[in-house]
UniProtKB/TrEMBL annotation:
It holds the Pfam family Methyltransf_11. GO terms for biological process: methylation. Signal peptide: none annotated. Keywords: Methyltransferase, Transferase. It comes from Streptomyces virginiae (Streptomyces cinnamonensis). One of its GO terms (molecular function) is methyltransferase activity. SUPFAM superfamilies: S-adenosyl-L-methionine-dependent methyltransferases (SSF53335). This is Methyltransferase UbiE. Residues 1-20 are annotated as: Disordered. Residues 60-156 form the Methyltransferase type domain.
Amino acid sequence: MSDWSQGSGPSGGAPEGAAWSGHEGARAFAAVEAATDWLLGYPFVLRELAGHIGAGQVLVDYGCGPGKVADHAARVLGARVLGADTSPEMLDLARASATAVAEYHLVEDGRVTDLPDGCADAVMCNHVLASLPTEDALLGVFTEIRRLLRPDAPLVLLTTDPACSGTEYASLRIGEPGESYAPGDPVTVRLRRTDGSWQEMRNHAWPVGLHPALLERARFRDVVQHRPSVDEALAVAAPDLVAARPWSAERAAPPLVITTALAAR
Ligand SMILES: C[S@@+](CC[C@H](N)C(=O)[O-])C[C@H]1O[C@@H](n2cnc3c(N)ncnc32)[C@H](O)[C@@H]1O
């Protein structure tokens, strides 16, 4: 039986409003384990980026949160990684722990004001879209990412698929068993903490099939989607993580989707 947390806030330990906002939200996210993401998500994002970006080139992590993935990317790819986030508290946590990241920037009113147009050789955006309440907000994020990218440079997006709702994965559960969610519906996501307990967060259900058209509206081209499987992860993820669990749910219905696109001229 799972130990779902009963946190102080209505969304289970973090304040209501923007997901993962404020000090409590930032601390809550920094404590999640993310095993499923380190199996089927982040290593595949890095593999996509490795084909496009090398030492010294600029990679922006848009919605970097506490900076764990940005820090890992900087060490593995040798790129100059810049983290950007709307949450000053997340950026404070990241500055304190993710030390391989070159710079951190606050996103204010949908813009990273101190980064110029075309400054990025690549952008990754991991688990940010589910925080956004409207389709216009998704388009706004894609438009700002497009502004940051130089022409022909890649965006790599990592998202959960709300069609996988109700399944208990090693480190997450999206929504309730037997429920289905319309685009933008509120959905409670449960994430496993490193101490084995579970953190709840209110997110929004954005079907992965929505992303290509929105990306094209934001002046991206060549959109490709890929759903990494456990069999593929055998060659991509850390061997000790792969060996640590049976990954039964992840094998039956892999819940993460990677969308790549190039900045159109
Ligand atoms: C679930 S966390 C993911 C953090 C990190 N990308 C990762 O995968 O570990 C989502 C992050 O997106 C940030 N965020 C939410 N809306 C944003 C927006 N419109 N622009 C940039 N960051 C945003 C939040 O503050 C939070 O840090």
